[in-house]
Every structure is written in structure tokens, then in C-alpha cells.
Design brief:
Layout: H1 2-23, H2 27-32, H3 46-77, H4 95-124, E1 132-139, E2 142-147, E3 152-155, E4 173-177, E5 182-188, E6 193-197, E7 202-206, E8 212-216, E9 222-228, E10 240-246, H5 248-260
Parallel strand pairs: 1-5, 4-10
Antiparallel strand pairs: 1-2, 2-3, 5-8, 6-7, 6-9, 9-10
Helix pairs in contact: 1-3, 3-4
Length: 288
């Protein structure tokens, strides 16, 4: 009789949790798994990131439900009864349970490590002879873009405070052709920044004095949100940009527009504020 009553009490929170999970959100919301909606097919890497994220949450929710269920079962079945002063049987060891609590977390940690390493290896794999190579130069508080193979550049200015909440015509825009392999070479003129395209589900630190690299293929035409993800000073929140993934015709027209404006050649990283870095030949501040 007691076991039936305990099972009934245990089934109530489980049923309530299932109802909340199944009815509270749309299928599109659950498919995104708390990632930005519409990100899965934006680049050749986003599907792998989304699938890994979703699988991780499913596994963790299952483990959580089992743990919460066992806790609820123990609280209900072994609670002190009204009018009873008996002390429950005391157990010092339970080898099967202790083994379970050791082996299962170990398997989870190893599994997540292997999946993370495999996904990161795929994302970080360099692309040999990419179709598009762009030097992304971070600066307080905007971005410059050198289109290396096209030999043109675009220089951005900081987004103004009054413009943050509305479309910004002066916001730096990185243009990329759809379905073409891309290599981004990233470096900073001053402090550490972080190049983050939200829907691409990936970010890269941008260091002064050292090139960092990112490889991907944009697969969906559209305009995507970008921002600096590393606190870099007073106007860090205004270090915004956009990425426009264009059709080949649109991309060719944009490159031609830069040439028409006379923005040919490449902006030099030597304009950096950091003129006293190792290897640049400067001895300022080192005399004596």
C-alpha cells in the first residue's frame, strides 16, 4: 500500500514536468535549443554546433530527471511518518550505487570531451586556398576589412550612441559571397577584441601583434549581427558590425563599388597603436 502511494506522489512532478516541456514552447524553439533562431544552416559549421548543443541538453535533462526523480522518491517513501519516532535503518556503504555515481559522470565527461574535440577540430581545420580571404582588423571601437584577393578595403567607424537601437547606415559591413570558402585573418590595432557573428555560432579572439584565423563557408544569403565579445574599453558595446552574405552578383558589385571609391590596396596593420611589440624593431622605452 505504501509503495503505491509513493509511486502516485512521484508521478505527479514527472507528469507536470512533461506537460510543461511538451506544451510550453513551439517545435521551432526547441529545435534551436536556446541558440539564435535560424542559425542551423547559416554556415557549413552551424549544423554541427546546433546538433552537439541539442544532444548535450537532451542527455543532461535525462540525467537531471533521473536524479530529481530519485530524490523525490527518497523524500516521499522514506519520510518520517506522523507520530513515528523510529530512526530509519542506517547504511554506511552501498557499492553498486557508489559505483554508479562514479562511472556515469565519468562516461559523460569523457563523451562530452570527445564530441567537443571532434567538433572543434572540424571547425578549426584550415581551408587550403580559400575562395575569399579577408583581413579583419579590430580597433577601438570599430572594424577594418581588407579583401586580400580583390585588393580593396573597407574602413569602419564607431557606431554612435543614438544609432544603436535603429538601423545604422554607418555600421561596418563585412561582405561575403554565398557558398564560397572563406578565411578570416584577425588582428587588433590596440587591445584584445573578439570577433563574434551571433548567427554563425562561433567567435574568435582578436589579439594585438598576432594573427588569428577562422575558416567557414557561408551557405545562406542574408544579413547577420556582429559584435565585439571581449570587454575592450569605454565604447565596447558600440563596437558593432554586420555580415552580409551576398549572391555572387551582389558580391562582385560591392567589390566594384569599393574600387570606384578609390579604396584599392590594403590597410596596414602597421598603423597600430602598439608600436613597441617584439619583432617590430622598435626600441622605445627599452633604452638603458
Amino acid at each position: 500500500m505504501r509503495s503505491k502511494r509513493g509511486f502516485r506522489w512521484l508521478s505527479l512532478p514527472i507528469a507536470a514536468s512533461l506537460m510543461l516541456a511538451l506544451s510550453g514552447c513551439s517545435s521551432e524553439y526547441w529545435a534551436s535549443s536556446f541558440l539564435p533562431l535560424g542559425s542551423k544552416d547559416v554556415t557549413n559549421h552551424t549544423a554541427a554546433v546546433t546538433d552537439f548543443w541539442t544532444t548535450s541538453w537532451i542527455v543532461l535533462f535525462l540525467v537531471g530527471f533521473i536524479a530529481w526523480g530519485l530524490m523525490a522518491w527518497a523524500l516521499i517513501v522514506y519520510r518520517r511518518r506522523k507520530g513515528s519516532n523510529d530512526v530509519p535503518a542506517q547504511l554506511r556503504y552501498n557499492n553498486p550505487i557508489e559505483t554508479l555515481f562514479t562511472v556515469v559522470p565519468l562516461i559523460l565527461v569523457i563523451g562530452f570531451f570527445v564530441l567537443t574535440a571532434r567538433t572543434m577540430s572540424d571547425i578549426e581545420k584550415p581551408t587550403v586556398n580559400p575562395d575569399v580571404q579577408v583581413q579583419v582588423i579590430g580597433k577601438q571601437w570599430s572594424w577594418d576589412f581588407n579583401y586580400v584577393k580583390e585588393d580593396v578595403y573597407s574602413s569602419g567607424i564607431q557606431v554612435q550612441p543614438s544609432e544603436v537601437t535603429k538601423p545604422v547606415s554607418e555600421m561596418p559591413v563585412l561582405h561575403l559571397p554565398v557558398n564560397k570558402t572563406v578565411e578570416l585573418d584577425l588582428q587588433s590595432r590596440d587591445v584584445i577584441h573578439s570577433f563574434w557573428v551571433v548567427q554563425f555560432l562561433y567567435k574568435k579572439d582578436v589579439f594585438p601583434g598576432r594573427w588569428n584565423h577562422e575558416y567557414f563557408t557561408p551557405t545562406k544569403v542574408g544579413v547577420y549581427t556582429g559584435k565585439c565579445a571581449e570587454l575592450c574599453g569605454e565604447f565596447h558595446s558600440m563596437m558593432l558590425f554586420q555580415v552580409s552574405v551576398d549572391t555572387p552578383e551582389q558580391y562582385a558589385a560591392y567589390i566594384q563599388s569599393l574600387k570606384d571609391k578609390g579604396q584599392t590596396g590594403q590597410l596596414s596593420i602597421d598603423d597600430s597603436r602598439n608600436q613597441n611589440l617584439p619583432g617590430n624593431g622598435s626600441t622605445t622605452g627599452n633604452e638603458g
